[in-house]
DNA sequence: TCGCCACATGAAAGCGCTTCCTACGCCGCA
DNA sequence: TGCGGCGTAGGAAGCGCTTTCATGTGGCGA
């Protein structure tokens, strides 16, 4: 590390706007104006101020700014959990757009936290608005944030609260139809719709698609991870009346189910169909490749940031509800397509 | 949405500590003490204050707190990019530990940003310390943050700056040895070591492992994504002197390379060996499953948060450099292991 | 019964910034 | 020559909180 000029400043080592003003021989108001361009400053003065800023290595304290300007220039995003590719992509889109709009991003993962509601309230005191994913916090908590702009993502609409969702229904119907077209009849749905409104919607659509062909699927609760998928699928495959299709609530369950099916000596895509949801990277690389539904996750995050910004800047005052299209991605795990 | 009691407060709709104090019939100092437990408060008084807080829905303004207390209770984390499973896991571990330590997390993705250095400086004004991943920011910028605790992750040590890394060298040597043991001789390294010190370390270790058997691998630059892996691998496989092993800098390149190999009619694990690095979910599910190296990503993030906290709280004042072990995960893509 | 001390509480001073309001030159016009 | 106006800059108030310092009250020992 190269030797550094120790920045001057008060005894605490922090440089304040007063130090800059003193060095430049101007008032603090002028420093503020020169740095933010909030009012005209003579060129020569500005140059002197900026030189002083540079010399002292002045970094404005965000707390001071935010207190005076009554804004945080920051957005929050609340996740249930950050594991899995789904949320990371949403976050990426969110961060990208938020920062383009001049806002920092604070993340909060509620998973495994003793008091998620308190954490959300604390977050609320640090941001100008926040995005909440799924059922991470109770409706009451969101309501208690009254006044703070909130956008919910992947959660059913909640009164006047803005929302951004993906349209699972259409693709789910298409998936149901597609499976029926393969001649599959004993269809098992794996997942816990009560845990997630999105999953409930998927299952509903699939039931509709299958129902058009007179097929009534069964439903088995399953946590949304791979190990659970393997376990639940193994149980189903051992039972009497083995299903000929396992329709899973997400890709992780489906990938786990593939493991179970192979363990049971079944050829996925021949002896049994398995489908997922999300189109994670592993879905493409699994053999057979997984039939699934692609969601525009990055766009979801990005759009949420935009919708939130409109509220924060009060560009819009009426609720906005967005629905993003999804794509059914047919691969080989649901049966061969010659 | 249920009807809500509109919180009282000033004309801006925000409730301040003054409103609470007025309602409870105490001074603002007492409200502060009652809420933070920073000094004894009579039980009856505390109860009255807390009731007022509840009634008004008071949420302390973080800016006020942080200005007065001279602390942000927040940490930053700077990523090159958030895509891919690698960073999401690190972030998860970081967020978990940081929040256990009572700190919020601000994320910054430098990828595709016009002025990353300015963004990092801005971040520096909002946090008590930050973690920087890889080569996202120039050494000078880190240095210019003098005074602000910084921990670098997956980046070579930088003077007195704390660091947390994974030990790629040991596993890389083991991988080299393993490949040599398979009888492979024409080995191609795919990746751009100059882009990432971690990758440079991997390649060095692999060269050492192979060198022990008198093998000198070739090296081909490649971006760290799947499409690049496919493209570069395809070119190599078409050339004269086709390599019999493609050792890739990460799993995504390797998964792309598998696609190329299969496209060229080669059986991966028989006609050609392919290995990755990271052990992403898709590595496990690819067929053949990918030989790779597992990195403790979650632990990496968590440890970084701890190391940073020690600096922020000044529990420790001497540099700390941590090295986490990695595991070679041998699967079938590097050759069959009967 | 008196005085002292510990405890509980309030007043007020900042923390570092933005911004309103005022003041000062200086120019141009009458 | 005198006055209004504009461009520029400074003083000072205040954002919402923590914390120090001073004050008041009750209980205790003498």
Explain this structure.
2 copies of one chain form a homodimer. With 338 residues, chain A is α/β, with parallel strands linked by helices. The first copy, chain A, folds into 3 domains: 44 residues, lambda repressor-like DNA-binding domains (434 Repressor (Amino-terminal Domain)), CATH 1.10.260.40; 122 residues, Rossmann fold (3-Layer(aba) Sandwich), CATH 3.40.50.2300; 128 residues, Response regulator (Rossmann fold), CATH 3.40.50.2300. In chain A, 43% of the residues lie in helices and 15% in strands. Chain A contains 13 helices and 12 strands. A 6-stranded parallel sheet of chain A has the order 2-1-3-4-5-11, with helices on both faces. A 4-stranded parallel sheet of chain A has the order 7-6-8-9. Chain A has a two-stranded antiparallel sheet with strand order 10-12. In chain A, strand 8, helix 11 and strand 9 form a beta-alpha-beta unit. In chain A, helix 1 crosses helix 3, helix 2 crosses helix 3 and helix 10 crosses helix 11. The radius of gyration of chain A is 26 Å and the shape is elongated. The N and C termini of chain A lie far apart (61 Å). The N terminus of chain A is likely disordered. Strand 2 of chain A pairs antiparallel with strand 2 of chain B, so a sheet runs across the interface. The first copy, chain A, binds a DNA duplex (30 and 30 nucleotides) through helix 2 and helix 4.
């Amino acid at each position: 590390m190269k030797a550094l000029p120790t920045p001057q400043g008060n005894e605490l080592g922090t440089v304040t706007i007063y130090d800059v003003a003193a060095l430049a021989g101007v008032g603090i108001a002028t420093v503020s104006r020169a740095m933010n361009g909030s009012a005209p400053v003579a060129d020569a003065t500005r140059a002197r101020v900026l030189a002083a800023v540079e010399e002292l290595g002045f970094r404005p304290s965000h707390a001071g700014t935010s207190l005076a300007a009554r804004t945080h220039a920051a957005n929050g995003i609340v996740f249930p959990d950050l594991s899995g590719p789904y949320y990371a992509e949403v976050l990426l889109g969110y961060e990208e757009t938020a920062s383009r709009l001049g806002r920092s991003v604070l993340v909060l993962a509620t998973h495994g936290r003793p008091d998620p509601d308190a954490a959300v309230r604390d977050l609320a005191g640090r941001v100008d608005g926040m995005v909440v994913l799924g059922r991470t916090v109770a409706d009451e908590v969101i309501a208690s944030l009254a006044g703070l702009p909130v956008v919910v993502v992947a959660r059913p609409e909640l009164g006047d609260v803005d929302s951004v969702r993906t349209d699972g229904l259409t693709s789910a119907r298409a998936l149901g139809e597609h499976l029926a077209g393969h001649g599959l009849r004993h269809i098992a749905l794996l997942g816990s719709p009560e845990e997630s409104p999105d999953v409930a919607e998927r299952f509903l659509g699939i039931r509709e698609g299958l129902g058009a062909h007179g097929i009534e699927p069964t439903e088995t609760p399953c946590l949304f991870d791979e190990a659970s998928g393997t376990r639940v699928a193994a149980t189903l495959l051992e039972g009497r009346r083995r299903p000929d299709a396992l329709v899973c609530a997400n890709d992780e369950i489906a990938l786990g189910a593939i493991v179970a099916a192979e363990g049971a000596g079944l050829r996925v895509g021949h002896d049994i169909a398995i489908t997922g949801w999300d189109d994670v990277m592993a879905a493409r690389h699994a053999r057979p490749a997984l039939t699934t539904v692609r969601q525009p996750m990055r766009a979801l995050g990005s759009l949420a940031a935009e919708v939130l910004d409109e509220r924060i800047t009060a560009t819009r005052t009426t609720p906005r509800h967005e629905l993003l299209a999804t794509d059914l991605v047919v691969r080989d795990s649901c049966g061969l397509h010659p």
